[in-house]
Amino acid sequence: MTLFGQDLLLRRDRSGTIVSDDADWVVESRLGLVWVRRLCHEGTGIPSLIEDEAGTPGFPMIACSEIEVEADYDQTVLGLVDPAHVPMVHTAWWWRSSPRRRVKTKDYVPTPFGFTATAADAFASAPAYELVGQDRKVTIEFRLPSTRIERVQGGRLQLLNITTVTPIAPGRVMLRNVIYSSVRPLRWLYPALSLLGRAFLEQDAAILRRLDSHASLHQPLLFVGEPDQPSAWYFQCKMALARAVGGTDAFVNPVRATRLKWRT
Ligand SMILES: [Fe+2]
């Protein structure tokens, strides 16, 4: 695999654990995925990996897709937190039932190394959520460096939907989406659901390809109003983490509990 433009060889040791012989890298297996990070000063606060959720151990993976795209890393991560992104980019009928705009309200709270949003409205916009049941609860966590964790809890099933952005090389990223479900037979839909996930990521990639990454590096970003607050928090969290990793202070989360409203 390649990270930050550097080739990294992973192998299984005698016990079957996936390891790297390069001491500069830390390798961990979690949720059936391999997570790699550069070794850094311990004790400064390193974002933790996603644990098996309480009550969700051993959920089978029901979809997995990835797409490599030439794009600016930060611009790609903003797609994970920007609320304007969803209605403008993901326009499939099963995700967006109506093109009509409506007001949406979400409560944000700080969570370790990021923030979590819960819809304060009575509705969820995606027809796909109807499968989960009426009494569903959906939370969306963003966790540094670049992970979006959507948890859907309904009467009929629970879902764990993870999207990540991996920096492969300067100006080149890998977008990945993995979904786990409490309903084991859903794993038989793995090929079809993975294709849907791939279509979703392709919509992200199509927008990213239209952005001028070079220009975005040299022009100041403009954040306007409540819809852009999560994007501003991303950069503030990232700076806070850089300070923590570069120094001896712990990560101080700049996010404050806030209710945000926008038309979507
Ligand atoms: Fe997206």
From TrEMBL:
One example GO MF annotation: dioxygenase activity
SUPFAM superfamilies membership: Bet v1-like
Keywords, comma-separated and alphabetical: Dioxygenase, Oxidoreductase
Protein name, UniProt field: Phenylpropionate dioxygenase-like ring-hydroxylating dioxygenase large terminal subunit
Organism: Brevundimonas variabilis
